[in-house]
Design goal:
GO molecular function: ATP binding; hydrolase activity; proton-transporting ATP synthase activity, rotational mechanism
Family: Belongs to the ATPase alpha/beta chains family.
Number of domains: 3
Main location: membrane
Strand content: 15-25%
Radius of gyration: 25 Å
Helix content: 25-40%
Subunit structure: Has multiple subunits with at least A(3), B(3), C, D, E, F, H, I and proteolipid K(x).
Largest sheet: 10 strands, mixed
CATH topology of the largest domain: Rossmann fold
Keywords: ATP synthesis, Cell membrane, Hydrogen ion transport, Hydrolase, Ion transport, Membrane, Transport
Distance between the termini: 85 Å
Length: about 475
């Protein structure tokens, strides 16, 4: 291990040093300041005779007299099952005052891409307890399903609700069909927070401790005043931990990453410090590749019982879904859950707008033996009815409700009830998939049978609330 005192330049989070031998990309570096403090960093660029180093703790206190040591290895995460229930900072160091972590292994945080031939197709259902997700945009094991939110919207509350409530129903019922269930695979949550304020961090920790969700979780906290360089490391540490629990210990792991916008801003900040040629809106041209390296670590591997499922959360600047961050995320992931400012202003909790939301793998994770036989038909019919109700709202603004037919008024009423009864549930209500689908039938039974053209007739006969419809007609 060679030591240098050859620092030539310090620029933002970067330190430039001269070397007389080749240094590997991503190699870990220790920098000892004249005050005796040791800081960690990572080689960002290595050219002939000069390396640039990004310092995790920031460059404060470093001057030309500081010593630079290259450790000859990339950054590794110490992993063990004992990480469950622990709270770590954005660099993977415990901050909860608990005992020292004794790792079973130390794994490279960059990870390895899953061999496409060995990758199993995501199929089994994950129940979040949120009707707008479970009923309309179902999450399946091994999927990556982002939440598109905006500044000031309650995405953190939704993230905490999912972290508390997410389960694999087959396991909890004890009659699972999946191979992992038969072998007793457990469920764990990895929560990676990037660039959050101290107030948000306190809210997260208070909720985790109050509800007991921390027992099955590993929490990584990178605060807003932590170095931007650390923000790049946090999701990789979280995903490395998830991969260990999933593929070494057979856990079904749900990874929640918030806020990916802060992560991308860190990429832009470091790119500017390196004087890189910027891409769209100043973000680095390699941002698509960088995001793909994170998102593509979700999945299932043939022969392994565990799985890694991702819910990245991002705030769209200016609520613009064409912004590079949601735009590139949409290319890589398998759908999106969209939070709506208008629904939020009406007091709908959570304010999920199901119309622009989408889960591309939903059809493979629902139906008989997975959720319920009528799930797909109920979801399709509610989408169609809600969309028609939304269109009629625009018409009402022009001609007034009195000009609409009785049929149109029923669809308007359906749209109102869908928002206030189906989507609206608060952040403390945990609905099973059975409760969600039965609630869907309650709403659909307000419509005439003849309008339920997306549901199989046998299912209508079995589930349609005939008495409720007749009572509604009498009242009318």
């Amino acid at each position: 291990m060679k030591e240098y005192q050859t620092i030539t330049e310090i620029s933002g989070p970067l330190v430039f040093a001269e070397v007389d031998e080749p240094v590997g990309y991503d190699e870990i570096v220790e920098i000892e300041t004249p005050q005796g403090e040791t800081l960690r960093g990572q080689v960002l660029e290595s050219s002939e005779g000069v390396v640039s180093i990004q310092v995790f703790e920031g460059t404060g206190g470093i001057d030309r007299n500081a010593s630079v040591r290259f450790l000859g290895e990339t950054m590794k995460m110490p992993v063990t099952e004992d990480l469950l229930g622990r709270v770590l900072d954005g660099s993977g160091n415990p901050i909860d005052g608990g005992p020292e972590i004794i790792p079973d292994q130390r794994q490279d945080i960059v990870g390895e891409a899953i061999n496409p031939f060995s990758r199993e197709y995501p199929e089994e259902f994950i129940q979040t307890g949120v009707s707008a997700i479970d009923g309309m945009n179902t999450l399946v094991r091994g999927q990556k399903l982002p939440i598109f939110s905006g500044s000031g919207l309650p995405h953190n509350e939704l993230a905490l609700q999912i972290a508390r409530q997410a389960t694999v129903p087959e396991e909890s019922d004890g009659d699972g069909d999946g191979e992992g269930d038969e072998d007793g695979s457990e469920f764990a949550v990895i929560f990676g927070a990037m660039g959050i304020t101290a107030e948000e961090a306190n809210e997260f920790m208070e909720d985790f401790e109050r509800t007991g969700a921390l027992e099955r979780s590993v929490v990584f906290m990178n605060l807003a005043d932590d170095p931007a360089v650390e923000r790049q490391v946090t999701p990789r540490l979280a995903l490395t931990t998830a991969e260990y629990l999933a593929f070494e210990k057979d856990y079904h792991v749900l990874v929640i990453l918030t806020d990916m916008t802060n992560y991308c801003e860190a990429l832009r900040e470091i790119g500017a410090a390196r004087e890189e040629v910027p891409g769209r809106r100043g973000y680095p041209g390699y941002m698509y590749t960088d995001l793909a390296q994170l998102y593509e670590r979700a999945g299932r591997i043939e022969g392994k019982d565990g799985s890694v499922t991702q819910i990245p959360i991002l705030t769209m600047p200016g609520d613009d879904d064409t912004h590079p961050i949601p735009d590139l995320t949409g290319y890589i992931t398998e759908g999106q859950i969209v939070m709506d400012r208008n629904l939020n202003s009406q007091g709908i909790e959570p304010p999920v707008n199901v119309l622009p939301s989408l889960s591309r793998l939903m059809d493979d994770g629902i139906g008989e033996g997975l959720t319920r036989e009528d799930h797909g038909d109920v979801s399709d019919q509610m989408y169609a009815a809600y969309a028609e109700g939304e269109d009629l709202r625009d018409l009402v603004n022009i001609v007034g409700r009195e000009a609409l037919s009785e049929r149109d008024n029923k669809f308007l009423d359906f749209a109102d009830r869908f928002e206030t009864e189906f989507v609206q549930q608060g952040y403390d209500t945990n609905r099973s998939i059975e409760e969600t689908l039965e609630l869907g039938w309650d709403l659909l039974s307000d419509l005439p049978k003849t309008e339920l053209n997306r549901i199989d007739e046998e299912l209508i006969e079995e589930h349609y609330r005939e008495d409720e419809q007749e009572a509604a007609e009498v009242e009318a």
